[in-house]
Amino acid sequence: xxxxxxxxxxxxxxxxxxxxxxxxxxxxxxxxxxxxxxxxxxxxxxxxxxxxxxxxxxxxxxxxxxxxxxxxxxxxxxxxxxxxxxxxxxxxxxxxxxxxxxxxxxxxxxxxxxxxxxxxxxxxxxxxxxxxxxxxxxxxxxxxxxxxxxxxx
Length: 153
Hints:
The chain is mainly β. The protein has strands at residues 4-11, 15-22, 29-34, 38-43, 48-56, 74-80, 86-91, 108-111, 124-128. The strands form two sheets. Strands 3-1-2-5-6 form a five-stranded mixed β-sheet, with no helix packed on it. A four-stranded antiparallel β-sheet has the order 4-7-8-9, with no helix packed on it. The protein is elongated, with a radius of gyration of 18 Å. It starts with a strand and ends in a 25-residue tail after the last strand.
């Protein structure tokens, strides 16, 4: 049986890509791009029964002096869904350069409940961690230099 699907992409230098596999009732593949960091609610389209998800966390911010932040993790998985169900996509933003060190990138995830519901019980189905912020490369003789941010996991 050939499946048709829905493709969604969330990006703010991070991304969550969704490929929804459906029966013959769904015509074609559609691509949707979310470019703003934060939470986005989606309703699973009629006929869609599974999602292939690829999530990428935000990049860590640069440190003072130009050290680069680490890249966010990339995580993928296949998830069963019910048509009409609401899923929440959280796009993690990139870290920013700070006065002494860069901020860490935000995690991107797919969840069953909004962020406002909290994490008990944990509604996250798939999570891609953000990259580490870089350290400060400007130093004096009394402090050692800091390095680049941590890499993706």
